[in-house]
Write a structure and sequence with these properties.
The two termini are 49 Å apart. The protein is built from 21 helices and 21 strands. The protein is of the alpha/beta class and 584 residues long. It folds into three domains: 137 residues, Rossmann fold (3-Layer(aba) Sandwich), CATH 3.40.50.2300; 142 residues, Reverse transcriptase/Diguanylate cyclase domain (Alpha-Beta Plaits), CATH 3.30.70.270; 259 residues, EAL domain (TIM Barrel, Alpha-Beta Barrel). The strands form four sheets. Strands 13-14-16-17-18-19-20-21 form an eight-stranded mixed β-barrel, surrounded by four helices. This is EAL domain, c-di-GMP-specific phosphodiesterase class I (Or its enzymatically inactive variant). GO terms for molecular function: cyclic-guanylate-specific phosphodiesterase activity.
Length: 584
């Protein structure tokens, strides 16, 4: 039982509300002797709301039977005005019948004590209520801090998302937005899609730092050459766009000649003379088009094969679109032709250095197109719906591989493979049921499979996602939020979804050793995950400094090229065996 000397919250703001001055004085004396110093009182319940507008107390001690407004009415006013932010209330009343107690508790009172009361019991209950109050406030403040950090970082990412990182010029997102505005306003517009020949080879030969320097020199030349006559944006590092508010062919050709002439001069960087070639495709707003993106596609199709030349778009160039149709067809046949396969990137326990699991990643190698990046084919698969068939194949393949490894006793107990689930898959009402049927037919131990979903995927239909994930989690599957920390969604869903793993986005890990804000955000995510009982996995670990900082802030797991790239099954197994042999 708490004693007077045990007061842990001496500065807690406590308000006593009782119409009897003697009762008020007795309570104030009791609280003062117990060590509470920030005490306030009212004998007129009509003044409660006005006083609380100035400052909310940490606790209200409230009588029930009072003139003008009884305690129940005061509770009702507090609840109506402050809702969930209503301060905690302990009722102290001689009116202790069952209906009175239940009504007070139903209106939000935290506790109910009858008069006369035991002083030590009252002090103990006050202490308990304040302890819960301050604990909840601390968690709320942490959530607000995390939300603020996420918002700040998201705002910075939003700003950077409109800029090319090397040059500061508008990127494709910014370009499309500005072009759409110009077209919507009916302004004349010509687009010059500038293919930079030799840039990729220079970057490969001399490194990306020199490549960035070359981009900056090119930016300066073009801006000086064009002046106010046109704008420049970076579509990608080997293709830029010049946009001209003019459709006059003669003036446009004169401008293109100046551009080619100014870029034809060699660039001198770090005692090197570097040469770029240009090929320029041109489209303009007088041609039939659906959007700014359509105009840009027309300009890109018009890029000639000869260096230092330009060509205007012509409808005959649409034949080039057939190649893209072939691409989509190839994607449709990729599974049947066994062109797709899985690779596995090890997940490492940052403390011991041991492999405790893996993320299964999809790869596609076409006999003609060669290696096709997931960043290119996954959006196509999602747009066409092909991702449903591919996603089923990925899950089946990962389960079969796990079964083989476990059957051969090649993996330690507790090993888990994570599989990415696309938004379209998660939004299928029977997704969870079908996956559980697969697992029931398999020989996998419970918990061997982990599902990774994105924040954006969850936000498409939170209720459906919750039902699916709860069904999976109920059968032992671990649920991970991929790329957590991008700020796409509210943090509130973490309270209701059966999440057990947070993956810190590589965008925050990449500069964790040089960007204090990224470090603070990662640390806050780890602390929040610890409070929720989640495991944290850092993505994109590429340097020893990353590992050391992530260990310092308490991140448990990590993956990235510092440890290993994604590996085929045999190479992955060899890596696991080598790693376990090297670890004590």
């Amino acid at each position: 039982m708490i004693q007077a000397s045990d007061c842990r919250y001496p500065d807690a703001r406590i308000l006593v509300v009782d119409d009897n001055p003697i009762n008020v004085e007795l309570l104030l004396d009791l609280l003062d002797e117990a060590g509470y110093a920030n005490l306030h009182s009212l004998t007129d319940p009509r003044q409660v709301l006005a006083q609380l507008e100035d400052a909310l107390p940490d606790l209200i001690l409230l009588d029930i039977r009072m003139p003008h407004l009884d305690g129940h009415q005061v509770l009702g006013q507090l609840r109506a005005r402050w809702g969930e932010q209503m301060p905690p209330v302990i009722v102290l009343s001689a009116q202790t019948d069952r209906d009175t107690r239940l009504q007070a508790l139903g209106l939000g009172a935290r506790d109910f004590l009858g008069k006369p009361f035991d002083q030590l019991e009252v002090l103990q209950r006050i202490h308990n209520t304040l302890e819960v109050h301050f604990l909840l406030r601390e968690r709320h403040d942490r959530a607000l801090l995390l939300q603020r950090l996420v918002d700040e970082r998201t705002a910075e990412i939003q700003r950077l998302s409109f800029q090319d990182p090397a040059t500061g010029l508008p990127n494709r997102r910014a370009l499309l937005a500005s072009l759409e505005q110009a077209l919507h306003a009916g302004q004349p517009l010509s687009l010059c899609y500038v293919a930079l020949d030799g840039f990729a080879a220079i970057s490969r030969l001399h490194g990306h730092v020199l490549g960035d320097a070359l981009s900056q020199r090119l930016r300066d030349r073009l801006l000086d050459c064009l002046g106010d006559a046109a704008g420049v944006a970076v579509w990608k590092h080997t293709a830029w766009v010049i946009h001209v508010p003019d459709n006059d062919t003669t003036r446009l050709e004169a401008l293109l000649q100046r551009v080619i002439a100014c870029v034809a001069q060699p660039f001198s960087i770090d005692h090197l003379r570097l040469q770029l070639g240009l090929r320029i495709g041109v489209s303009h707003s007088e041609q039939p088009h659906d959007s700014a993106d359509h105009l840009l596609r027309q300009a890109a199709l018009a890029v000639p094969g000869e260096a230092d030349q330009w060509r205007f778009y012509h409808p005959a160039l649409e034949a080039e679109l057939q190649r893209r149709s072939h691409y989509r067809l190839a994607l449709h046949e990729a599974l049947d032709r066994r062109q797709m396969f899985l690779v596995y990137q090890p997940k490492i326990d940052l403390g011991s250095g041991r492999v405790i699991g893996a993320e299964a990643l999809l790869r596609w190698v076409h006999p003609e197109l060669g290696f096709v990046s997931p960043a290119e084919f996954v959006p196509l698969a999602e747009a066409s719906g092909e991702i449903l068939r591919i996603g089923d194949w990925v899950l089946d393949s990962a389960i079969r591989q796990l079964e083989a490894w476990f059957a051969a006793q090649q993996l330690p107990d507790g090993f888990r493979i994570a599989v990415n689930v696309a938004t379209l898959q998660l939004m299928q009402p029977d997704f969870a049921e079908r996956l559980l049927e697969r697992l029931q037919r398999s020989s996998l131990p419970r918990g061997a499979l982990e599902i990774e979903v994105t924040e954006s995927g969850l936000m498409q239909d939170v209720a459906l996602a919750r039902r699916q994930l709860q069904q999976l989690a109920g059968q032992g599957l671990s649920i991970a939020i991929d790329d957590f920390g991008t700020g796409y969604s509210s943090l509130a869903y973490l309270k209701t979804l059966p999440v057990s793993v947070l993956k810190i986005d590589r965008a925050f890990v990449n500069e964790i050793d040089s960007n204090l804000q990224d470090l603070r955000l990662a640390e806050t995510v780890v602390q929040m995950a610890r409070n929720f009982g989640f495991v944290t996995v850092a993505e994109g670990i590429e340097r020893a400094e990353h590992v050391a900082l992530l260990q310092d802030i308490g991140c448990q797991l990590g993956q990235g090229y510092w440890y290993s790239p994604p590996l085929k099954a045999d190479a992955f197994l060899a890596f696991c065996q080598q790693t376990h042999a090297a670890c004590p």
